[in-house]
């Protein structure tokens, strides 16, 4: 059979038809495809050249001739085409990355100013959970405001704080993309926010154990690592992450200095914080020495120190309203009800006091005054009679 004609192709029954020089037409019931069969380095290979009728006879012959020339030049057509596709994709990724690729680039650009490189605050988490599944693989130039709206509408009201974080970080991604020359418009995110509508969200306070119930819970705790860490959180009134990572080399005498990298605050803004330790807190240190670790509260798993999950699990067994962070509220309300000065109680909680000018002059961390209050709090927590007095901290 000689070379094919357009009439033959149009009227052909299902089957394979040779056009010569390796070009084959494969006819199906309603369509067809072109195949280039060739040999390279002793291997027989077949390469698709497109579907018929989208690719006609003349175009298929041109493709065959192009790849036949590549063979004569010592190149494998399939390998060459795959390499060209990889290069084309790399160029496209550079000029128009996917949303997920752009989010990772944004995090990389911002992480020097984020605590723990963005991992402490889990910067990517709202995007990973709620945005990536919907538009993560879409290229930045192809994302419409309706796409962002659809990704968040399910949680816009029911989980508004999370949705708000997700849309704010989505806008950061668009803003960073635009400033780096990617074709996109941050107004797309603003339009999505408008489409989602206004939400009247009333923040809910975190659960906290009433201070009057803290001694009973404290007494119920034993000497396991997680139990002692909860006691340490209660006695020091620090945040959970700072407490869980406590190390022996951070303690000198009866003062524990929490390093800046475990204190709340923006990268480069947080400072080390001194915590006066009560008699009860010093007892915890002595018990923790038996664990034989550099950490007071070591983990027996892959973590360096006990996890927040372990503490939460223990608390749920004991009190419905008890949370690790909530003990700071327990302390604060105890301080209010016992006339502890606002300045001292706020400093104990490592809260920022006064404006920038006031802080520039008032540089003392009032350690001695705090020590008196923390000793009284420790005595109360441990259930010592007469420990709740109206101190003037």
Can you walk through the features of this model?
- Mean pLDDT is 86; it is low at 388-393.
- The chain has helices spanning 6-11, 57-72, 77-95, 99-110, 125-135, 145-152, 160-179, 187-196, 214-220, 225-236, 240-244, 279-288, 308-316, 326-337, 342-348, 356-361, 367-381, and strands at 15-20, 23-27, 32-40, 43-52, 251-252, 255-258, 273-276.
- Strand 3 (32-40) and strand 4 (43-52) form a beta hairpin.
- A four-stranded antiparallel sheet has the order 1-2-3-4.
- With 393 residues, it is of the alpha+beta class.
Notable traits:
single chain; 393 residues; alpha+beta; Double Stranded RNA Binding Domain; DNA polymerase, domain 1; hpI Integrase, Chain A; 3 domains; four-stranded antiparallel beta sheet; three-stranded antiparallel beta sheet; 7 strands; 10% strand; elongated; disordered C terminus
């Amino acid at each position: 059979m000689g070379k094919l004609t357009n009439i033959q192709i149009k009227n052909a029954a299902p089957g394979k038809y040779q056009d010569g020089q390796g070009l084959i037409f494969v006819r199906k019931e309603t369509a067809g495809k072109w195949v280039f069969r060739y040999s390279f380095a002793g291997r027989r290979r077949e390469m698709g050249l497109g579907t018929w009728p989208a690719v006609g006879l003349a175009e298929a012959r041109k493709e065959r001739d192009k790849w036949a020339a590549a063979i004569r030049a010592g190149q494998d057509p399939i390998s060459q085409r795959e390499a060209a596709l990889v290069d084309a994709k790399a160029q496209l990724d550079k000029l128009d990355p996917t949303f997920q690729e752009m989010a990772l680039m944004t995090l990389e650009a911002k992480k020097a100013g984020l605590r723990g490189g963005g991992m402490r605050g889990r910067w990517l988490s709202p995007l990973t959970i709620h945005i990536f599944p919907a538009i993560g693989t879409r290229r930045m130039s192809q994302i419409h405001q309706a796409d962002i709206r659809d990704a968040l509408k399910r949680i816009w009201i029911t989980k508004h704080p999370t949705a708000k974080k997700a849309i704010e970080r989505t806008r950061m991604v668009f803003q960073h993309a635009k400033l780096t020359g990617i074709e996109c418009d941050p107004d797309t995110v603003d339009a999505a926010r408008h489409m989602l509508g206004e939400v009247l969200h009333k923040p809910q306070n975190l659960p906290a154990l009433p201070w009057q119930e803290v001694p009973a819970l404290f007494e119920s705790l034993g000497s396991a690592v997680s139990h002692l860490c909860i006691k340490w959180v209660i006695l020091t009134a620090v945040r959970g992450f700072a407490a869980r990572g406590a190390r022996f080399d951070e303690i000198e005498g009866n003062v524990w200095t929490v390093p800046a990298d475990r204190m709340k605050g923006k990268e480069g803004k947080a400072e080390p914080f001194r915590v006066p330790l009560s008699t009860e807190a010093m007892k915890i240190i002595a018990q923790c020495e038996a664990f034989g670790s550099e950490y007071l509260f070591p983990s027996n798993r892959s973590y360096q120190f006990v996890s927040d999950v372990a503490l939460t699990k223990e608390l749920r067994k004991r009190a419905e309203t008890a949370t690790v962070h909530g003990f700071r509220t327990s302390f604060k309300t105890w301080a209010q009800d016992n006339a502890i000065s606002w300045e001292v109680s706020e400093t104990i909680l490592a809260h920022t006091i006064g404006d920038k000018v006031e802080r520039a002059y008032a540089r003392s961390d009032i350690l001695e005054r705090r020590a008196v209050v923390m000793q009284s709090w420790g005595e109360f927590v441990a259930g010592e009679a007469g420990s709740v007095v109206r101190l003037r901290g």
